[in-house]
């Protein structure tokens, strides 16, 4: 498949020039796209390593000032006379715990400068971590999982013409502001030399701009100019192409632009099938039965192409 059923691209990139440098250059997007467990590991290490780094600095300052060897000297940091105490002071400073046991003195200006640098750096780390977490939770991929397509596309008659259709629905109760449906026929051609050509053919969609308050069936009229105009039922069974469909929309709750995609291979396009009606009108509201979202029923459709049918 060119596009998997859940919408991700089935493509693997190799030998990308300066690939690692590109990930580091756009580190924010890289962290948003990685898995949660890897992100938590990176964030935990960023805090622990920063505590350890500044703890070493405070320990070196205590060594240089003689706080560890002579407990009677005026310390740079009160009650820091070992590496463990220096690490705990670094942790308490960066997390603003403030137990009141360890604290800065006025004897060492360089220690005061180190504390100031650590406080500023802790603000940057907190801002970065919170921004990544919020961006990851509000990711368009998560919202796209609540908007889905039917498992199959169907070919049937409508108003005396042959149509290709599929369903799209929003499984959440919050409606979308606006959405646009698109579809393409994707074909891959392998040449004897090993070269692969990927071609794209756009399908014209009837009423592609949709407010997805209820599940909607999207129609493509198979007419002159359509890539499927001369295709019969037998041709469809032998065909080697992929129907890639997408729905781009704006979430009413967040105002963020999202896109949901899927694809249909020829064996997932059912000839002579019709989607079952899933919307009922009640006394006070419209009722939608999602048990019928993927269900189809057989109808009579000639096995000839749309061109021959006309």
Automatic annotation (TrEMBL):
It catalyses: K(+)(in) = K(+)(out). GO terms for molecular function: inward rectifier potassium channel activity. Residues 3-139 form the Potassium channel inwardly rectifying transmembrane domain. Its main location: membrane. The chain crosses the membrane at residues 38-62, 111-135. Keywords: Ion channel, Ion transport, Membrane, Potassium, Potassium transport, Transmembrane, Transmembrane helix, Transport, Voltage-gated channel. One of its GO terms (biological process) is potassium ion import across plasma membrane. Residues 148-309 form the Inward rectifier potassium channel C-terminal domain. It is a multi-pass membrane protein. The keyword Oxidoreductase does not apply. It comes from the Eukaryota. Gene3D superfamilies: 1.10.287.70, G protein-activated inward rectifier potassium channel 1. The keyword Cytoplasm does not apply. GO terms for cellular component: monoatomic ion channel complex; plasma membrane. SUPFAM superfamilies: E set domains, Voltage-gated potassium channels. InterPro entries: Ig_E-set, IRK_C, K_chnl_inward-rec_Kir, K_chnl_inward-rec_Kir_cyto, Kir_TM. It is found in: Membrane. The record marks 126 as: Role in the control of polyamine-mediated channel gating and in the blocking by intracellular magnesium. Belongs to the inward rectifier-type potassium channel (TC 1.A.2.1) family. This is Potassium inwardly rectifying channel subfamily J member 16. It comes from Maylandia zebra (zebra mbuna).
């Amino acid at each position: 498949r060119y596009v998997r059923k859940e919408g991700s691209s089935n493509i693997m990139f190799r030998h990308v020039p300066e690939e690692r440098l590109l990930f580091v250059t756009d580190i924010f997007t890289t962290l948003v796209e990685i898995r949660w467990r890897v992100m938590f590991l990176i964030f935990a290490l960023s805090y622990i390593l920063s505590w350890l780094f500044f703890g070493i600095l405070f320990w070196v300052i205590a060594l240089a000032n003689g706080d560890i060897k002579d407990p009677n000297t005026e310390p740079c940091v009160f009650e820091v006379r070992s590496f463990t105490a220096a690490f705990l002071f670094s942790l308490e400073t960066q997390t603003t715990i403030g137990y009141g046991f360890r604290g800065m003195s006025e004897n060492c200006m360089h220690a005061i400068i180190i504390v100031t640098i650590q406080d500023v750096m802790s603000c940057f780390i907190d801002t970065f971590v919170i921004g990544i977490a919020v961006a990851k939770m509000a990711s368009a991929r998560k919202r796209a999982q609540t908007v889905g397509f039917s498992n199959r596309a169907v070919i049937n008659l409508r108003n005396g013409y042959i149509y290709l259709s599929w369903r799209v629905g929003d499984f959440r109760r919050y409606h979308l502001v606006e959405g646009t449906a698109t579809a393409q026929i994707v074909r891959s051609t392998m040449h004897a030399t090993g070269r692969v050509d990927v071609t794209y053919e756009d399908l014209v969609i009837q009423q592609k701009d949709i407010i997805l308050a209820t599940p909607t069936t999207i129609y493509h009229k198979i007419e002159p100019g359509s890539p499927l105009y001369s295709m019969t039922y037998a041709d469809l069974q032998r065909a080697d192409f992929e129907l890639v469909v997408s729905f781009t929309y704006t979430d009413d709750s967040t105002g963020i632009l999202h896109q949901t995609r899927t694809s249909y291979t020829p064996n997932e396009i059912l000839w002579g099938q019709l989607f079952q009606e899933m919307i009922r009108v009640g006394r006070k509201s419209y009722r939608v039965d999602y048990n019928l979202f993927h269900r189809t029923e057989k109808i009579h459709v000639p096995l000839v192409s749309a061109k021959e049918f006309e």
